[in-house]
Amino acid sequence: MNSLITGALLGGLFASGVYLLRLHVHRSRRVDSRVLPFVQVTGFDWAATHDRNSQWMSSPHVRRLLNSIVTDASVQRRLEQANSPLDLNAFRVDQLRWACFGAGGAIAFGLLRLLAGEPIPVPIWVSFCAVAALVGSMLRDYLLSQDARRRVEVITSELPGFAELLAFTVAAGLAPASALSRVSGRVGGEFAIELRACCDQVAAGRPFTDALEALAVRTGSESVQRFVDGIVVAIERGTPVAEVLRAQAMDARAASHRQLMESAGRREIYALIPVVFLILPAVVVVAVFPGIFGLVISTP
Fold it and tell me: What pLDDT, on the 0 to 100 scale, is given for residue 22?
């Protein structure tokens, strides 16, 4: 009975791996995957087109299972924040691949125990495989969250410099949209990538304020949200944009300084951990041990 269950699990794992490899090969041969990296297309959502290789992702059972772990809206938001080249379906395939790797490790561990003569009970083994698959899936989601968080921190740190450059450009006489396009085209960084995407949307016909609000939503940074809100309010009320941008740059500098001080405070607490748990106990042991040893020797 154990051998039948083991064979079934191995066969299912092998079939899943072969099917995922087939999906990857067919995806790499598609025309749009070979042409789109060399052209710039705005205003068209390629993710919404029909994808034969991802039809199985539209299965209600698979979609319900993945949504029970992490919702599609959360994954899509973090993919945009991390500027990931993967779309939602590709990330779900990658997540299932990590789940298969986790289940494969659990199966390999059970087989080693079986060969060693200490087999794991079948219910425990199956539960262990399920938990390993879940851990693999959640680990891939955690890595995506870390990528999104790091990119948001980089964008927040780049914001003050961009705000000052934009203020100088607007003060020189350019309109806000033209100044944004000029600044984003001459500097680098993660925030410049988002600004260029905003300029592309404006060039495609989207209102400037809507493109700015979409930029704030896409980055997910509170500092960028305040920066965008200030520009939008200044444009709608007719306030001089250059003065608003200078004030926004000062606020961004202050927020960056405050975040740096908070980070330094956390690092200071982390620095106390080896002192409290390693150095201090060693000092106490060195100071107290000779006295305890002398009392033990002098006791008849």
Answer: 67
